[in-house]
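testing teh design pipeline on a random one, pls ignore if ur not involved
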């Protein structure tokens, strides 16, 4: 059985390819060129040579720019805090890039170095990885059933320590690098945004409306932000809300930055859901802890109510719900209150 392995040149994708070849799969490496910088291809090519597998290059720069980078900038301009990686996984890596690779090699499975587990019985299920620290199921909540059916995650039952050990035993010469948070941003986020968003002076106010200072553009801020406010106060202040229409940044004390309710948009449910109230657990950002919640549909709106208020729920981020160790579904946070 053929399997196309998305290869970056790093240890995770390299060992994913190694493990699948060891299991007897016909492995074809694929490097997805999303940016002009091409160092990763040389590294992936070196690993492919060591593994004695072919490597194809899929150029998706134009689509990546239009679908991911432009959308990222547009979301910030609208006052949201997007997570481009979750959209890239669905639309680019497990979508367009995989389709282009199959056009070259024919029918095949797709595999990556993500830490997650796929199980199949009545339908496809997405499960947390064995390594709780490295688990990346949160980043994969947008994947559809047809994508999960063709996907393999060979690292899901290993810990990162296991992978380093296997890498050492193979004798493969693999660069010791980790994936960047956002691959198309080198340096500070604000510096990147300033290339595309003009400065637009506005007021920084507290929750009662008292003016405390001035900012260079409300879209440069995110809910929960503490640093970079440029105002002095007797106690630390955090961004509570971004008012794009009035170009205002609303700040408050830490306790004023907690929210209990969220409304979701652009949802995807990996598990079947009829719309009836469900008790689950959810994360409001990748590194957040899960917290008990209730999922419900009210007047056509998808709402999530947490048992305990959550700090800095930022519109634009992904809220991912779990049923024990399984991803139930997720959505983009439209508002929090």
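output:
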């Amino acid at each position: 059985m053929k399997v196309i392995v998305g290869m970056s040149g790093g240890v995770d994708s390299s060992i994913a390819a190694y493990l699948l070849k060891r299991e007897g799969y016909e492995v074809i490496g694929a490097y997805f060129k999303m940016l002009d910088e091409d160092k990763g291809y040389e590294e992936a090519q070196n690993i492919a040579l060591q593994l004695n597998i072919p490597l194809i290059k899929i150029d998706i720069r134009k689509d990546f720019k239009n679908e991911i980078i432009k959308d990222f900038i547009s979301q910030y301009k609208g006052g949201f805090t997007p997570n481009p990686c979750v959209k890239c996984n669905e639309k680019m890596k497990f979508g367009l890039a995989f389709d282009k690779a199959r056009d070259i090699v024919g029918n095949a499975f797709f595999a990556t170095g993500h830490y997650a587990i796929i199980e199949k019985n009545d339908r496809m299920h997405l499960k947390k990885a064995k390594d709780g620290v490295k688990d990346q199921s949160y980043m994969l909540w947008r994947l559809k059933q047809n994508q999960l059916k063709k996907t393999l995650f060979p690292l899901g039952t290993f810990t990162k320590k296991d992978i380093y050990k296997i890498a050492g035993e193979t004798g493969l010469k693999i660069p010791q690098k980790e994936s960047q948070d956002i691959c198309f941003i080198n340096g500070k986020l604000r510096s990147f945004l300033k290339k595309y968003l003009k400065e637009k002076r506005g007021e920084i106010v507290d929750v009662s409306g008292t003016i405390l200072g001035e900012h260079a553009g409300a879209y440069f801020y995110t809910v929960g932000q503490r640093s970079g406010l440029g105002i002095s106060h007797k106690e630390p202040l955090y961004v509570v809300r971004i008012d794009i229409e009035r170009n205002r940044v609303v700040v408050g004390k830490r306790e004023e930055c907690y929210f209990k309710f969220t409304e979701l948009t652009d949802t995807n449910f990996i598990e079947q859901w009829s719309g009836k109230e469900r008790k689950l657990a959810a994360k409001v950002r990748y590194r957040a802890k899960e917290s008990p919640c209730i999922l419900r549909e009210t007047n056509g709106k998808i709402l999530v109510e947490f048992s305990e208020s959550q700090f800095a729920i930022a519109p634009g981020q992904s809220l991912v719900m779990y049923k024990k160790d399984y991803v139930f579904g997720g959505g983009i946070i439209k508002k929090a209150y």
